[in-house]
Amino acid sequence: MAASEAILEVRDIHTFIGQFHILEGVNVNLPRGSIGVLLGRNGAGKTTTLRTIMGITPPRSGEIRFEGQRLNGMRSFGVARLGIGYVPEHRAIFKGLTVRENLHIAERRSGDFARKADLIFDLFPDLKRLVHLPGGNLSGGQQQMLAIARALVPDNRLLLIDEPSEGLAPVIIEQLMHAIRRLSEQTTVLLVEQNFRMASQLADRYTIIDEGRSAVAGDMRDLVKDQALIQRYLGVA
Amino acid sequence: MLRRTLASNWFYVVLMIALIILPHAIGWVSGDSPFGVRGRPVGQSIYWQGILIEVFVLAVLAMSYNLVFGFTGVISFGHALFFGIGGYILGVVLEYTDLTGEVGLLIGIGLTLIISAVLGLVIGMVTLRLRGVYFAMFTLAVAEMFYIFFSRLALTRAEDGFALTELPVWIDPTRSRLTFYYIALALLAATFLFIRRLIFSPTGAVLLAVRENEERARTIGFDTLRFKLLAITLAGMIASLAGLVQVILNKKVGPEVLNVSNTIDPLLMTIIGGAGTFTGPVIGAAGLHLGDRLLRDLVIEVGGASIDIGANWALILGIVFILVVLVFPYGIVGTFRRWRTKQAK
Question: Considering only CB atoms, which chain A residues are within 8 Å of B209?
Fold first, then answer.
């Protein structure tokens, strides 16, 4: 089954931050071309899972593979260069750089930005008229768009996006969802999302992380129908 | 193109012209020739040239410190090492080899640049993995180690140091101070332009990104260690050139060039003027050094009490520093710029 070949395989990772055992066995399997979402309560370990994949908080045991290549032991700039774009939570832009500089800096080969500019400004038209402004002057939603746009500049084949909807107005969330859906036509996406409505509308695959372990995983369509499961792990109706 | 460049940089152009004319202006007003009197380095113009050369040296030193501290966000306490090493290398070359005059000077400058670059790379590679205050402490320890070694070592003539007697006439500040003034001014201008060019380049954007959030820069795909290494190495090379100018002005190298004050002063000048701005370190250096020079011998009479400014200079400087940090939290230039952007909105 070439179509559903896994682009990302995370197998039984254990991550410690200081002396704290944060991830106690997380598995994620993401087919190429899909949108996956990590669900779970606050503090369950969703963000740490993304940070572990990126090599920011490396796993003590377990295995991470991207397109078959082991990521264990690689540092985050090496992981990024393989073709993984990471959009951390809290609108992770460079406030001191202009919008253009924020995008330009993400080039992995020269000309990346020029090649992607049309796509980026098509997805996020707001950014086009703001290119000369410092990132810090943008609104929260615009900063989030810039953060995602930055991950689109190089040819990333996997995007890790942490809580894109956090603190944004419903209209902006709508816009972001539309953009993420469109960019998923070209790349695989792994989201962390608290907003279950957004997650359920976007994602094909889900993994529920509970107390540092991946508890359940499967097809999003099945989860939406399973109220008991949702109630048990997410506490939302 | 040229007109646009001139229009947007008129302030720097005017300042530059003023600094070029200044020795002659002082000479004209005071009646003392800017070239000295009867071949001897005396007179008002010569005196002020000396002070301004010191300002230029400190400004270059502060700008180099700002490249690391202000633009890259790395706090180093070892900058005096680079400042001092430049002078010592020139001293050793002129003292221990038969090279004199232009050849000795050129080889001294070349070796200074090479050795300070190597030192910057080695110290950076060993220490940059340390974070924040640990890095700062380590650089302080390394710089102090050199200070203690060089003030005891027979090779560097211990406390005495060297007198630089074999300089070419055209650069010798006791014989051609005006030429040397222009050389120091050229170094100031070149450093300013170089740092501005660097910061506006793609590499500069990465340095600013590292300053703002190193982890974020790393997850985009930058080996941030390399960029910090580059900043430290370039800053070290620039600082060593500043040290070179300083020892040529004094015609003497001694352990004092490695003193920790050559780290603290540029740090204060950078913070007071505005860290992470282009003009801030220059303004900080000029303000502090001119203030020191002008007020040193001043005694103020307030009512019956007389306050000896010179004797209490450190105390006054401390108060000024506290006030500046309170009133201008981003330094003079930085705070002014923020205020202006706010006005514009």
Answer: 94, 97, 105
Q: Are B221 and A80 within 8 A, CB to CB?
A: yes
- What fold characterizes domain B12-271? ABC transporter involved in vitamin B12 uptake, BtuC (1.10.3470)
**Is the domain of A75 the same as that of A163?**
yes
Residue A190 included in any domain: yes
Q: Distances from the Cα of A161 to the Cαs of B12, B43, B62, B117, in angstroms?
A: 45, 69, 41, 40
Residue B161 predicted with pLDDT over 80: no
Domain boundaries, chain B: 12-271
ipTM of the complex: 0.85
Nearest chain A alpha carbon to B214:
A94
**HSE-CB for B297 with a 13 A CA cutoff:** 2
A198 and A210, same domain (yes or no)? yes
Task: Give yes or no for residue B243 having a pLDDT over 90.
Answer: yes
Nearest to A199 by CA among A52, A35, A51: A35
Q: Is any Cβ of chain A less than 8 angstroms from the Cβ of B212? A: yes
Closest chain A C-alpha to B212 CA, distance in angstroms = 7
Q: What is the extent of the structural domain holding A117?
A: 94-154
Q: What are the structure tokens assigned to B337, written together?
A: 């710029």
**What digits encode the pLDDT tens for the residues A94-122?**
998 999 999 999 888 888 888 888 888 88
Q: Do A77 and A161 share a domain, yes or no?
A: yes
Going by C-beta distance under 8 Å and a sequence separation of 6 or more, which residues neighbour residue B236? B64, B82, B116, B117, B119, B120
Partner-chain residue, chosen from B205, B211, B221, that has the shortest CB–CB distance to A77:
B221
- Model pTM score: 0.88
pLDDT at residue B162 tops 90: no
The DSSP call for residue A37 is E
Split into its structural domains, chain A has a count of 2
- Domain finish residue from A112, A128, A154: A154
**Residue in chain B nearest A50 by alpha carbon:** B219
B208 interface with A at CB cutoff 8 Å: yes
> B340 pLDDT exceeds 90?
no
pLDDT of A1 > 60? The answer is: no
Q: Which amino acid is at B172?
A: D
**Chain A residue whose CA is closest to B216:** A92
When scoring B71, B220, B277 by the number of chain A Cβ atoms within 10 A, the one with the most, hence best to mutate, is B220
Residue contact A101–B218, C-beta within 8 A: no
Structural Rg of chain B based on CA atoms: 21
Domain boundary, last residue among A154, A169, A191: A154
Which of B205, B213, B220 is the closest to A80 by Cβ? B220
Q: What is the pLDDT of residues A39-94, one digit of tens each?
A: 888 888 889 999 999 999 999 998 999 998 888 889 999 999 999 999 998 878 99
User: Under 8 Å CB-to-CB from A152, ≥6 apart: which residues?
Assistant: A85, A116, A119, A120, A123, A159, A183
Over the stretch A121-141, which tens digit does the pLDDT of each residue have? 888 888 889 989 998 889 888
Partners of B213 on chain A (C-beta within 8 Å) are: 92, 94
The answer to whether residues A208 and A215 touch, using CB atoms and an 8 Å cutoff, is yes
